Amino acid sequence: MMKREIKKRLPFLLARATVGVALLAGAVAVYAQAPKPIQGTITVIGGNALTVKSDADGITQIEVPSIAVILRIAPGAKDLSAAAKILFSDLAVGDRVMVTPNPKASGETAQALRIIAMKQSDLALKQQKEREDWQLRGVGGLVKSVDASAGEIVLSSGLGATAKTITVHTTKATVLKRYAPASVRYDEANPATIDAIHVGDQLRARGTKSADGTGLAAEETVSGSFRNIAGTVVSLDAAGATLVVKDLATKKPVTIKIAAETQMLRLEDRMAQILAIRLKGGAAGTGGNGTAGGPRGGGTGGGQWGGVRSGGMGGGGFDPQMMLSRAPAIHLGDLKKGDAVMLVATDGTTEVSAITLLAGVEPLLEAPAASQNLLSNWSLNSGAGAAESASQ
After folding, report:
1. What pTM does this model have?
2. Cα 144 vs. chain centroid, distance in angstroms?
3. By CB neighbour count within 10 A (0-12 exposed, 13-18 middle, 19+ buried), where does 390 fall?
4. N or C terminus: fewer CB in 10 A for the chain?
5. How far is CA 38 from CA 63, 74, 158, 364, in A?
6. Angle of CA points 126, 377, 223, to nearest 5°
7. Contact 204/134 with Cβ under 8 angstroms?
8. Residue 29 in 3-state DSSP?
9. What is the pLDDT of residues 307-324, one digit of tens each?
10. Are 97 and 39 in contact (CB under 8 A)?
């Protein structure tokens, strides 16, 4: 009896199983064909369409029909609970968006089903607050030692009157990041462990400082291995934003990429001589006499060097990092073949990206070790390539 019943129901069971497999296969096919979200920055708005430069460097045109849902969220939001609906006309070039394409749309141009937007103005405000917080509660320096078991990182920070040792205390709650290869952008930094931090690395941290400033309970750190280069310019390519420098240490040419965020400065001859004497341990007998005033770019209050005339160069008040911060900015086109330069760059052998480049350094090359230490410390605390450029 049981066998006859199974025999009668078998065709039905097989048919239902076949339908189920077909539905499952169809669902898998639809899922596989569903377009991925497009995340990037709006570059063009026209009519009812957007052009988005994706984070993968692709350019995508997207139609935005009237039925598309557009939401605005604050930078750093973890979900859509506080999202607000906005109109297509509220979007602007520079806004960050994540577009969910409509999988049922026909045609070659993607159609938006939903757009989640972060306004450029909101991002700028967040970045400004981040920069201020890093400056207020942040420290930076060269790593002297790392005790992974204790979660402690000892930094050497500053030179001259500002030189000090800082112990950075980390816990399991501390966010540790590491700059990506060939990058000095904070938003491209990757999560890391304390074991990834090495002696000689540059590191910035922010958190709660001790009363005497020699300790910091870190909420977040970002570190990286960078290369110090001193040499002479062999060739320049302004259109390609590169220059070739013969490294005095290795005697080999290195191609230097100049990015938009690269900080380029030139020391005035007089100030370079005074710095060189100080870094070599000599007495700056002619320092502070006011003759260094009025360099390129002018300024108020007696020139950009006016601040060093009242004792900034004298005795214990010597602050070379303050002097560097007042050096006039230059562009790649201001350099020429044969110029001596010093720079901090991403790690690499034959090709690197410059973080900070300093020209007019011929006298400093007489004390290369001290000068490179000066530049490394200064590049961290000046904001060039540091965490102050924190993004969304």
Report:
1. 0.64
2. 23
3. buried
4. N
5. 13, 18, 44, 49
6. 55
7. yes
8. helix
9. 333 333 344 455 666 777
10. yes
